[in-house]
Amino acid sequence: MTRAELLADDPIWLILLKVLFIFLFALLTAMITVWAERRLIGRMQNRPGPNRVGPFGLLQPIADAIKMPFKEEIIPRTADKVTYRIAPVLALAPTMIGLSVIPFGGQVSIFGEQTVLQLVDLPVGVLVVLAASSVGVYGIVLAGWSSGTPYPLLGGLRSAAQVISYEIAMGLSIVAVILQTHSLSLGDIVDGQHGLWFGVALFPAFIIYVISMVGETNRAPFDLPEGESELVAGFHTEYSSMKFVIFYIAEYINMIVVSAMGATLFLGGYMAPWPISLINNNYFNTGWWPMLWFIAKVGLALFFFIWIRGTLPRYRYDQFMKLGWKLLVPVSLVFIVVLTVINAWDSLGTTGILISLGFGVLLLIALVMMIPDRRDPRAGRVPLSGGGFPVPPIDLQIPSKPRRTKQARSRAGRRQTVAAGAKEGDDGVS
């Protein structure tokens, strides 16, 4: 039976069991990722991280989950109350939808029922994940607008510009995968990687996707909507208690979704890595083993998120936009044309793979060249007049000594007269 036929025969209790698994998987993985991030970045910065609650601080996320509901909830007087309350839910709900089409494994038997470790395999599964991640940004934008204060609004506007810029680059990187598999179904994309994974065969698209997924999730070094040095805390400045926790969880579940999507598209999905897949007549690609490989690949991608957060400094806003619009989008378009020519000339064989890898090396060189030289004091400076970057122009010339109006001069003269009279009176008394 095919994947679609097996999923169509699932009884209602099995569907509910899969829904429960996806919900628990998202929450538990988010909690573990929070703990791992605090511990790993602590080690990178030569400090212990959480180590008080439980062994190695493992129970710290549970302690935070118990503490946060009892925090005082403060709603700004200028907030739009309805939108203010809906925004966190709107940020969290689409992330769960994105996980519903991800294949976690192959065919297994659950309580005697043959099924596939996937909730639903849609013919347009790729578009469902992209749409869910795009809708999630509305929660951030509405949270910034409904707070009624300037810094959250700026964070929401930044997030809107960010998701538009990097959603395009991410979509173009996925087009390369679709050209190779001729399908938008995530199950078919995994089946198309039985030989060479697309992370190697389509190396430039893989690099672009990795950069775009960091920008899509508002993570460092692309966390411009949450720039503490500029926007206090960004779009969620005015949120507290459980509403803040919902935004926090939504960010980490969104990381899980794009990591699972990247593993499915470019890292072979739930299939075992190369030499393990050759052992014992492909034994490690059957049964429940594929689910283990898939979770390991998602964990590796989440470690990458943590690693770059503890390593790279935050980009400036104009550098961030320049990277998306002037490098990632044009390179994606050029690579799609090159890949189309290769497929029209011949299938993606050894020659096509070598061309793809060479293209990826050129992309890496371009990325390195875009990093400003820190030794040059003029590197990366933005002219005050704008200089082509999206910053407000400063055309006014501020005089060294501000001009004093006639009214100001008359008021200053009256103050001097009163002060002189008071001084003479004091002298007379003495």
From TrEMBL:
Residues 382-430 are annotated as: Disordered. Residues 401-414 have a biased composition (Basic residues). Its EC number is 7.1.1.-. GO terms for molecular function: NADH dehydrogenase activity; oxidoreductase activity, acting on NAD(P)H, quinone or similar compound as acceptor; quinone binding. It is a multi-pass membrane protein. One of its GO terms (biological process) is aerobic respiration. It is an enzyme of class 7 (translocase). GO terms for cellular component: plasma membrane. Its main location: membrane. It comes from the Bacteria. Pfam families: NADHdh (PF00146). The chain crosses the membrane at residues 12-36, 86-104, 124-145, 166-184, 196-215, 245-267, 287-307, 327-345, 351-371. Keywords: Cell membrane, Membrane, NAD, Quinone, Translocase, Transmembrane, Transmembrane helix, Ubiquinone. It is found in: Cell membrane; Membrane. It catalyses: a quinone + NADH + 5 H(+)(in) = a quinol + NAD(+) + 4 H(+)(out). Belongs to the complex I subunit 1 family. NDH-1 shuttles electrons from NADH, via FMN and iron-sulfur (Fe-S) centers, to quinones in the respiratory chain. The immediate electron acceptor for the enzyme in this species is believed to be ubiquinone. Couples the redox reaction to proton translocation (for every two electrons transferred, four hydrogen ions are translocated across the cytoplasmic membrane), and thus conserves the redox energy in a proton gradient. This subunit may bind ubiquinone. NDH-1 is composed of 14 different subunits. Subunits NuoA, H, J, K, L, M, N constitute the membrane sector of the complex. This is NADH-quinone oxidoreductase subunit H. It comes from Kibdelosporangium aridum. The lineage of its organism: Bacteria, Bacillati, Actinomycetota, Actinomycetes, Pseudonocardiales.
